[in-house]
Design a protein that fits this description.
Elements (H helix, E strand, L loop, with lengths): L1 H26 L3 H36 L2 H26 L15 H32 L1
Helix pairs in contact: 3-4
């Protein structure tokens, strides 16, 4: 077991070193890229810790206080999936065609696609909530 752990640790360190080498190549290419990479690696954690984490905490607290018990899991799953879909869509919603040209990839209507995906997620959550609510009521009556 110790040999496997040591192997995994060495592989992880090797990947870390390779990532650092690639990162240095990007940073040293130009000052503009260095600023962008620094903003990404510094701004991302600051944005997460200052905005995203508190919002997620408040939403989680609200779910445990206001949502009936059978609805908690479906609503929590739908909220997590909605957040992930929205985070993945933000770059293409923000700059719809500024990422580069790749026919078939960047020529979509991402706002409509996101709206449809979120609608499907929440319809599934509502349907699951109703099913779980009926099961709970049926078990309580029996």
């Amino acid at each position: 077991m110790r040999i496997a752990r040591a192997g995994f640790a060495l592989a992880g360190l090797a990947m870390l070193a390779y990532g650092g080498w690639l990162g240095w190549a990007v940073i040293s290419a130009s000052t503009e890229r260095a600023v962008q990479v620094t903003a990404w690696f510094v701004g991302g954690p600051l944005l997460h810790d200052g905005l995203v984490a508190p919002v997620v905490g408040v939403v989680g607290l609200a779910l445990t206080r206001w949502v009936p018990r059978p609805w908690r899991a479906p609503v929590a799953v739908a909220a997590v999936v909605s957040a992930i879909l929205t985070l993945l869509a933000i770059p293409l919603l923000w700059h719809p065609f500024g990422v580069g040209t790749n026919p078939g990839l960047h020529d979509r209507d991402y706002a409509t696609g996101l709206a449809v995906a979120l609608g499907v997620v929440w319809i599934c959550a509502v349907a699951t909530g109703f099913v779980l609510g009926r099961r709970q009521r049926g078990a309580a009556e029996a």
